[in-house]
């Protein structure tokens, strides 16, 4: 383990009560297992004392670094910023809230060394309210079924991945939930291990009920940009074709039934929803082509990141390439 540098990326948003403790726990594990680490904090526009604490910590430990966004833009952008400045052969993603214990780091690395490219944590026993746990289980099952990447806990914030996987990661919005799916779509080997999960004792959760609706829409976007990237009509067009077939039948039936007439009214609302969804998917595909550097604006750097210039944005290859037969 000690022969390689491990970059630990920690997105931070209003976690002033946990950052220092997290550093102590990471340092303890690194010393015990002789790990060569760098811890890179990405302050996603915190409004509390989080950045001041990060500044103080980086003055005390040369293995720490941090960057601060001008405003809050989301966890996905924070991870992309971390990817751009990480120098490790292995990258670990870890939340700042202490719910995912750093003591799991050696187990993640051991599993990675079995030949995997991405190892995700699996919070088998979650210490969260039931209204977060059970919808999350349903959502994870849905992701596995639709994408073919079978993990119990796609959305776990504790992940370990090889450096070359980062080049294929384009995260924005809420797509950090789908890192395993995106990696699997590029042919990388993805797995998970059961990991401990602690109750939250500091701060407050940054996610509400709206995350499930956003997650479902993002899942459709991920399907479009992975399985259906080169054949979007197979997703959007097939649904439209079924509506074209069903609508005339219902219109004919409505001539003889007032109930069916009301059904058609409801169907029209559904059609409008499908149209809006399709427009959203088109906008999503356009957004996916924007330069990743537009995601965030770094205004301060400290510690290990003070003189580190971010690598060029990890943009995809051109959509079309000419070969010798063009």
Structure description:
43% of the residues lie in helices and 14% in strands. By secondary structure, the chain is an alpha/beta fold. The protein folds into two domains: 5-225 and 293-303, Spore Coat Polysaccharide Biosynthesis Protein SpsA, Chain A (Alpha-Beta Complex), CATH 3.90.550.10; 233-287. The longest helix has 30 residues, at 258-287. α5 packs parallel to α8 and α9 (233-254) packs antiparallel against α10 (258-287). The chain is elongated, with a radius of gyration of 22 Å. The protein has helices at 19-32, 50-60, 75-85, 105-112, 130-147, 163-166, 179-185, 210-225, 233-254, 258-287, and strands at residues 5-12, 36-43, 64-69, 90-93, 118-122, 159-162, 190-194, 298-303. An eight-stranded mixed β-sheet has the order 7-5-6-4-1-2-3-8, sandwiched between helices.
CATH topology of the largest domain: Spore Coat Polysaccharide Biosynthesis Protein SpsA, Chain A
The biggest beta sheet is recorded as: 8 strands, mixed
Q: Name the helicity range.
A: 40-55%
Care to count the β-strands? 8
Low-confidence stretches: 313-326
Helix and strand sequence:
EHEHEHEHEHEHHEHHHE
CATH homologous superfamily label of the largest domain: Spore Coat Polysaccharide Biosynthesis Protein SpsA, Chain A
Helices, by number, come to: 10
Radius of gyration computed on alpha carbons: 22 Å
Mean pLDDT: 79
- What is the SS-derived class? alpha/beta
- The first-to-last residue Cα distance is 48 Å
CATH architecture of the largest domain, please?
Alpha-Beta Complex
What global shape is seen? Answer: elongated
Q: Any idea of the CATH class of the largest domain?
A: Alpha Beta
Strand order of the main beta sheet, please? 7-5-6-4-1-2-3-8
Provide the number of structural domains: 2
What share of the residues does DSSP label as strand, in percent? 5-15%
């Amino acid at each position: 383990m000690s022969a390689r540098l491990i970059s630990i990326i920690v997105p931070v948003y209003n976690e002033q009560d946990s950052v220092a403790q997290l550093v102590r726990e990471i340092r303890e594990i690194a010393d015990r297992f002789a790990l060569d680490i760098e811890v890179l904090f990405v302050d996603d526009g915190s409004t509390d004392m989080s950045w001041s604490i990060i500044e103080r910590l980086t003055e005390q430990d040369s293995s720490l670094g941090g960057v601060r966004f001008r405003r809050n833009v989301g966890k996905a952008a924070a991870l992309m910023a971390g990817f751009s400045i990480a120098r490790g052969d292995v990258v670990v993603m870890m939340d700042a809230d202490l719910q995912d214990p750093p003591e799991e780091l050696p187990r993640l690395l051991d599993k990675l060394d079995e030949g995997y490219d991405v190892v995700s944590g699996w919070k088998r026993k979650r210490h969260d309210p039931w209204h977060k746990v059970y919808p999350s289980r349903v959502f994870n099952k849905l992701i596995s079924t639709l994408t073919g990447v079978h993990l119990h806990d796609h959305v776990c914030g504790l992940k370990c991945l090889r450096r070359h996987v980062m080049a294929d990661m384009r995260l924005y919005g809420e797509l950090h939930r789908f890192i395993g799916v995106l990696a699997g779509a590029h042919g990388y080997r993805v797995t998970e291990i059961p990991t401990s999960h602690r109750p939250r004792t500091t701060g407050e959760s940054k996610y509400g009920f709206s995350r499930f609706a956003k997650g479902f829409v993002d899942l459709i976007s991920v399907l479009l940009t992975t399985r259906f990237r080169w054949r979007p009509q197979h997703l959007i067009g097939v649904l439209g074709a079924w509506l074209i077939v069903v609508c005339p039948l219902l219109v004919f039936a409505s001539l003889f039934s007032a109930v069916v007439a009301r059904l058609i009214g409801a169907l029209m609302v559904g059609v409008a929803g499908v149209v809006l969804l399709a427009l959203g998917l088109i906008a999503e595909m356009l957004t996916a082509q924007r330069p990743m550097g537009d995601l965030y604006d770094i205004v301060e750097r400290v510690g290990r990141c003070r003189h580190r210039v971010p690598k060029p944005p990890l943009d995809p290859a051109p959509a079309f390439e000419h070969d010798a037969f063009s």
